[in-house]
Amino acid sequence: MILREHKFDDTYISLIDEYYTPNSKDKFVKEIANLIKDSDKIGFAGYLTRSMLKNQLRNEIFDNKSKPKGSGKVIDDSDLKLIIKTIKKCKKEIPSKQLHIFVFPTFSDHVIKRMDGATGSTPYHNTFNIFVVPYKFTKVSLENTVCHEYFHAVYRHDNYKLLDRMINEGLAEHFREHVIGGKRAEWAKAVSSKKCKIIFMKLRSKLKTKNYHLISKILFGSKDYRMWTGYSIGYNIVKDYLKNTKRSWKDIVKKKPEEILSHSNFD
Question: Distance (Å, rounded) from C-alpha 171 to C-alpha 149?
């Protein structure tokens, strides 16, 4: 495996240039993690230790139904150009300082079936990771993921409480729609606006919770919550906020989640 690095302006893109069919998932993850250099500014691709990066890569690259096969490039030059083009569009709306992007392969069955082959995570300020299923992701899913994660990377407010997470996701998805356009994402419409308000009222006493397991259930689904419930709630809160305030994204990115909620019809 090879780590290729590309720089434009103040943006650094590191990508796994080649991959192979892993005969050991742990060995595959370890090999990728060992390619990532330690940085005084962002650690290991946004994680404090290499061990933390390995754990996250294991979760993102494989799931219980993963069936990895094949070999070759993770993305090609046209995909890299698309990432650069998308970042430039994002920067016109919200300028950013030094930006670090990492592109990894994933064989996740969930990403293939529910995410059109691309997903992302933002572990640290001005740093985000993109995971694509080689030869199975769409250009649209890659573009949308980069734009969505860009917002997460530049939104500097706390992201630990339930309200923070829901608002953050809602903002990122509306930012993606504003910059890229296109249809509403599945996670933004998993629950109707009317149902979102009903669920939100029941969650009012839990908005400040930092309970990771509860937040995960609300965001990603459980026996009590439909998949992406928290995403849909956040999307609808931000939809109200944007309708009620008419602000630029340079201004919106400075707003705390509580202020955004206060200018919505959910408060």
Answer: 11
Sheet of 127-132: strand order equals 3-8, 11-16, 99-105, 127-132, 118-124
Instruction: Tell me whether residue 84 is exposed, middle or buried, using C-beta atoms within 10 angstroms of its C-beta: 0 to 12, 13 to 18, 19 or more.
Output: middle
Cα–Cα nearest to 105, from 118, 87, 115: 118
The helix or strand, by DSSP H or E, that contains position 93, with its residue range, turns out to be: helix 77-93
Tokens 């309200």, residue located: 163
Residue ranges per structural domain of the chain = 3-154, 162-262
Print pLDDT tens along the chain (267 aa).
Answer: 889 999 999 999 999 988 898 889 999 999 999 999 999 999 999 999 999 999 999 999 999 888 888 899 999 999 999 999 999 999 999 999 899 999 999 999 999 999 999 999 999 999 999 999 999 999 999 999 999 999 999 998 888 999 999 999 999 999 999 999 999 999 999 999 999 999 999 999 999 999 999 999 999 999 999 999 999 999 999 999 999 998 999 999 999 999 999 999 997
Query: Residue 140's closest CA among 183, 88, 203?
Result: 183
Alpha carbon distance 13, 105 (integer Å): 14
Kindly write down the DSSP assignment for every residue of 158-221, as one continuous string: ---SHHHHHHHHHHHHHHHHHHT--SPPGGGSSS-HHHHHHHHHHHGGGTT---HHHHHHHHH-
Go through 147-156 and write b for each residue having 16 or more CB atoms within 10 A of its CB, e for each that does not.
Answer: bbbbbbbbbe
